[in-house]
Specification:
Blueprint (H helix, E strand, L loop, with lengths): L20 H56 L4 H33 L3 H8 L5 E8 L3 E8 L4 H9 L8 E10 L6 E9 L2
Antiparallel strand pairs: 1-2, 2-4, 3-4
């Protein structure tokens, strides 16, 4: 087994490579030429970009001027006479409809609170088991029709009608009771004529 190595052998020594001056000059020329080409390309690209930027800025300025002109034209423009008259007509119609609606609401409120004296007195003598379905009121005679679920309550209701001012001077001359088929309600008809 070998324990020593001779480092002075030529096979173990590093190989010295030397460039000739001509090859070094060619390499340097290539690097310089490549740098010049790259620099020229970058300069050309920068000029192209500057030209594009200038064109875009000019286009933007032209569009801003056009926008300003259009805004001034819009401010100075007047609507057509036909549109103005149509708007006025629609406005008048809306005002008329609002006035009509307010009038109808007023009339409805007045109608709700201006019951005749007879109807107000009917509400005083109202009972739960008797419902009026139809009535005709005349100075010389009256007719009342309705339904009841308790026929015995009708005479008591008639008695309370004597307190209604409208029926003073009238007497109930006829009372008809009719059982409705397949229903619990009984139909009644009262006829009052002038006379005590």
């Amino acid at each position: 087994m070998k324990q020593r190595i001779n480092l002075y052998q030529t096979s173990l020594q590093p190989i010295k490579e030397t460039f000739a001056l001509s090859s070094l000059f060619v390499s340097m020329s290539l690097v310089l030429l490549t740098s010049l080409v790259l620099w020229a390309g970058l300069q050309w690209q920068q000029r192209q970009q500057l030209q594009r930027n200038t064109q875009v800025e000019q286009q933007l300025l032209r569009q801003q001027e056009q926008l300003g002109l259009l805004q001034q034209a819009l401010l100075q423009r007047q609507p057509a006479n036909a549109l103005i008259s149509e708007r006025d007509q629609i406005k008048r119609r809306v005002e008329q409809q609002i006035a009509l609606q307010q009038y109808l609401v007023t009339q409805q409120v007045q109608a709700e609170y201006s019951y005749s004296a007879v109807l107000q007195q009917f509400t005083v003598v109202d009972i739960n088991s008797v419902w009026l379905t139809h009535f005709i009121l005349r100075p010389d005679s009256s007719e009342l029709q309705g339904l009841t679920t308790v026929p015995a309550a009708v005479p008591g209701w008639l008695e309370s009608l004597r307190n209604v001012d409208y029926f003073k001077g009238q007497r109930f001359s006829e009372l008809r009771l009719l059982q409705l088929p397949e229903q619990q309600a009984v139909q009644f008809q009262l006829i009052a004529v002038q006379g005590e």
